[in-house]
Design goal:
The complex is a heterodimer of chains A (316) and B (293). With 316 residues, chain A is of the alpha/beta class. Helices cover 36% and strands 26% of the residues of chain A. Chain A folds into two domains: 231 residues, Rossmann fold (3-Layer(aba) Sandwich), CATH 3.40.50.300; 61 residues, YebC, transcriptional regulation domain (Alpha-Beta Plaits, 2-Layer Sandwich), CATH 3.30.70.980. A six-stranded mixed beta sheet of chain A has the order 5-6-7-3-8-9, sandwiched between helices. The longest helix of chain A is centred in the middle third of the chain and has 16 residues. Chain B is mainly α. The longest helix of chain B has 34 residues. The chains are: A alpha/beta (316), B mainly alpha (293). The interface between A and B is large, with 44 and 37 residues.
C-alpha cells in the first residue's frame, strides 16, 4: 500500500496548496471560486467537466495568469511572485496541439530543453532519453508532422520531462487517443509518478480514467472544489462485488435480499457491497442453491464518480 | 545509436543535477536559434532557397558594383546608396523571415511550451526581434563588406586608401543597422498578429507598399514644409531621412544624393525612434496577451 508508506513523509511536504483562490475574467465570468486545497506529492487527478476551471488552475500554478484573489503555492514557491523559479521545476503538457510539424521530435525537445536552461549537449542527451522513456526512440528523427496522435502526445510528454522537473502538469494527456493509446498513456504517467519519482497532476474530464492511476483526486465543478482526498480514503469502504448470472437474475436478487444483503441492480449486474470474505461465501452459496449459471463474480471499486455525485439518500 | 546491435539495457530514469543556465544564456540560445532559422539552418532544403537566393542577389550586386568601380575608377554606389537600392529586397527578405520566426510558432501552438518555461515572455519576443535585426543587418552588411574588400584591394593609394575606405564603410554599416532595426520592428510586429505565414508576409509587404505612394503625394503638394516632412510617411524614406540628417556627407560621399528634408532632420530621428519604440511596445503587449491565453 503506497499510501501508508509515504504518509509520514508527506506530512511535511506540500506539493501544491491554494487558499481561497479565486479567478474572475472581466469581473463577470468566474473560473475559480474560493478554491482551497492542499495536496501531497504523488499522482494527483484533477477532474471536472470541460470549463470547470482546470486549465485556469494550471495557468495560475504556472504563473501565467495572476489570480484575482487568494494565495497559491507550488513546491513551496509562489508562482505569482517568482514564476521563473516555479517553471524551472515544473513540466507542462498542454491540452491542444503544440508541435511544429516540420521539426523532428529530437530537434524540438532538444530546443525546448535548452529553453529550460540545459546546456547544449545535455539538452541533446536528455531529449533523446526523454523520447526513449516515452517510447519514441526509433522515430525521433522524423518530422513530427507525420506522427500519429498518440506519438504527438508522447512528444508533448517528453518535452515536459526533458529538464527533469519535480512536478508535471498534464492537461488532458489522453485527449484524442484510442482506448489502447489511452491505456498506454496512463500506464506511462503512472510509471513517471512511481518509478521516476516525479509528482504528476493529471487533468481530465474522465474520472474513470484517472482514478485508476492516481493516489489523490481533486474534483472541481464550476470553479468550486467538490472534494479533494486520497483515492484510498474515498474507496476503501465502498468496494462492491459485481455478480452476473446468465439467467435467473431476479431469483438471485430476491435470495440475496432474503440473506440481508443490500443488493442493487445495475443493468444485468447485481451489486453487493463487500463487507468481508463472508460476503463471497453467501453469494456463491446462493448461486449454488439456485443452480444458476454464474457468469462472473468480481470485486470492483465503487466508481469514484458516485462519490462526487450529489449525495443521495440511497448512498450509505 | 539506434543501429547498435547489443542488448539495450533500460537504465531507468536519470535525475539531472548538473548546471542550469541563467536567463541571459537561454535568451542567447533562443536568439541564435532565431538567426539560424532565418537563414534556413537546421531546416529543410526548401526553407533555405529563398534566404540564400536573396543573399546571392545582394552579393552579386555588391560584387558587380565593385568591379565596375575598379574599372572606371569612380564610385558607382556608396555604401548607404547600396542599402537604399537594396531596400525592396530587404523588405521581401523580412516578409519571409519574420513570419518564419513568429507566425510559425503562433500557428503550431508551440508558444505554451515556451511560456511554461522560466524564460519571461518578453524575452521570447525580444530574442526573435534581435535575431531578425541581426539577420537584416548581415544581409546588408555582408555585401558592404564585399564592396569594402574590393575597394581596399584595388585602391592605388596604399594603406591611406584602405583607411579612407574604412571610414566610408563604418557609416554605411551604421546606416544598414538603422534599416535593420526599423524594418525588423515593423515586420515582426505585423507577423506576430497572425499565425498564417502568407497573410503575415502579405501584410508586411503591404505596410511598405501602401505607404510609399503617400510619400509621393505629399511631396508634390504645394507646401515646402509638407514636402520636406513627406518622407516621414513611409518607413523606407523615413530611414533615408534619418540617414541624411545623421550621416549627411559621409552617406553620399560628396555625390548628389540624400533626400530634401530641409531642417527637419531631428524630427526624422525622433519619429524613427518613436516608431521603433511603439513597435516594440506593441510586440511585447501582444505577447503578454498571447501568453495568458
Amino acid at each position: 500500500m503506497p499510501g501508508a508508506a509515504c504518509a509520514s513523509y508527506s506530512d511535511s511536504v506540500t506539493l501544491l496548496a491554494t487558499e481561497s483562490l479565486t479567478k474572475t475574467y472581466g469581473g463577470r465570468v468566474t473560473a475559480l471560486a474560493d478554491l482551497t486545497v492542499s495536496v501531497e506529492p504523488g499522482i494527483i487527478g484533477l477532474v471536472g467537466a470541460n470549463g470547470a476551471g482546470k486549465s485556469t488552475l494550471i495557468k495560475i500554478l504556472l504563473g501565467l495568469l495572476p489570480p484575482t484573489s487568494g494565495r497559491v503555492q507550488v513546491l513551496g514557491l509562489d508562482p505569482t511572485t517568482d514564476p521563473a523559479a516555479v517553471r524551472a521545476r515544473v513540466g507542462y503538457m498542454p491540452e491542444h496541439d503544440a508541435l511544429p510539424p516540420d521539426l523532428s521530435a529530437a530537434e524540438l525537445v532538444t530546443h525546448l530543453g535548452r529553453m529550460s536552461g540545459l546546456p547544449r549537449t545535455v539538452a541533446r542527451e536528455r531529449a533523446s532519453e526523454a523520447l526513449r522513456h516515452v517510447g519514441l526512440h526509433e522515430e525521433r528523427h522524423r518530422a513530427v508532422g507525420g506522427y500519429s496522435t498518440g506519438m504527438k502526445q508522447r512528444v508533448k510528454l517528453a518535452q515536459a520531462l526533458v529538464h527533469d522537473p519535480d512536478l508535471l502538469l498534464l492537461d488532458e494527456p489522453t485527449n484524442g487517443l484510442d482506448p489502447a493509446g489511452r491505456d498506454a498513456m496512463l500506464a506511462l504517467v503512472h510509471r513517471i509518478g512511481t518509478e521516476f519519482g516525479i509528482s504528476v497532476v493529471v487533468c481530465s474530464h474522465l474520472l474513470g480514467e484517472v482514478e485508476r492511476i492516481c493516489d489523490t483526486l481533486i474534483a472541481i465543478d464550476g470553479g468550486r472544489l467538490l472534494r479533494a482526498d486520497r483515492v484510498a480514503a474515498m474507496t476503501t469502504a465502498t468496494d462492491v462485488l459485481a455478480v452476473e448470472v446468465s439467467e435467473g437474475t431476479e431469483e438471485l436478487a430476491a435470495r440475496l435480499a432474503a440473506l440481508d444483503l443490500p443488493v442493487s441492480r445495475d443493468g444485468r449486474l447485481l451489486l453487493v457491497p463487500l463487507a468481508d470474505d463472508h460476503t463471497y461465501d453467501l453469494i456463491l452459496g446462493a448461486v449454488a442453491e439456485l443452480d444458476l449459471p454464474l457468469h462472473r463474480l468480481d470485486q470492483r471499486r465503487h466508481r469514484v464518480a458516485e462519490l462526487f455525485a450529489p449525495r443521495e439518500p440511497s448512498h450509505v | 545509436m539506434s543501429e547498435a546491435t547489443g542488448v539495450i539495457h533500460d537504465i531507468g530514469y536519470q535525475r539531472y543535477t548538473g548546471p542550469r543556465l541563467a536567463r541571459r544564456q537561454v535568451f542567447g540560445a533562443l536568439y541564435g536559434h532565431g538567426v539560424r532559422t532565418v537563414f534556413g539552418f537546421g531546416r529543410s532544403a526548401k526553407a533555405k532557397i529563398f534566404p540564400w537566393l536573396v543573399v546571392a542577389v545582394v552579393t552579386v550586386v555588391a560584387a558587380g558594383v565593385t568591379a565596375v568601380r575598379s574599372q572606371i575608377g569612380e564610385v558607382v554606389l556608396t555604401y548607404a546608396q547600396f542599402a537604399d537600392a537594396m531596400s525592396w529586397l530587404v523588405i521581401f527578405f523580412a516578409a519571409v523571415a519574420a513570419p518564419e520566426l513568429v507566425s510559425r510558432d503562433l500557428r503550431s501552438g508551440v508558444l505554451p511550451l515556451y511560456f511554461s518555461r522560466p524564460l519571461p515572455r518578453g524575452d521570447y519576443a525580444l530574442a526573435k526581434l534581435l535575431a531578425l535585426v541581426t539577420s537584416l543587418w548581415l544581409l546588408l552588411g555582408g555585401p558592404q563588406l564585399v564592396m569594402f574588400l574590393g575597394a581596399a584591394f584595388t585602391t592605388d593609394r596604399g594603406l591611406r586608401g584602405v583607411w579612407d575606405e574604412l571610414l566610408d564603410l563604418l557609416p554605411g554599416l551604421l546606416y544598414a543597422g538603422l534599416w535593420a532595426v526599423v524594418f525588423a520592428s515593423i515586420a515582426l510586429l505585423v507577423a506576430s498578429l497572425t499565425g498564417k505565414r502568407a497573410f503575415a508576409a502579405g501584410g508586411i509587404v503591404a505596410v511598405f507598399l501602401m505607404t510609399t505612394p503617400v510619400v509621393g503625394v505629399l511631396s508634390i503638394l504645394p507646401s515646402r514644409t509638407v514636402n520636406e516632412l513627406a518622407f516621414l510617411a513611409a518607413p523606407s524614406s523615413l530611414v533615408s531621412g534619418v540617414g541624411t540628417w545623421a550621416l549627411g556627407d559621409r552617406l553620399t560621399q560628396g555625390q548628389e544624393g540624400g533626400i530634401p528634408i530641409g531642417d527637419f532632420g531631428p524630427v526624422y530621428a525622433v519619429v524613427a525612434v518613436l516608431l521603433v519604440a511603439a513597435c516594440v511596445s506593441l510586440l511585447l503587449l501582444r505577447y503578454r496577451k498571447v501568453a495568458a491565453r
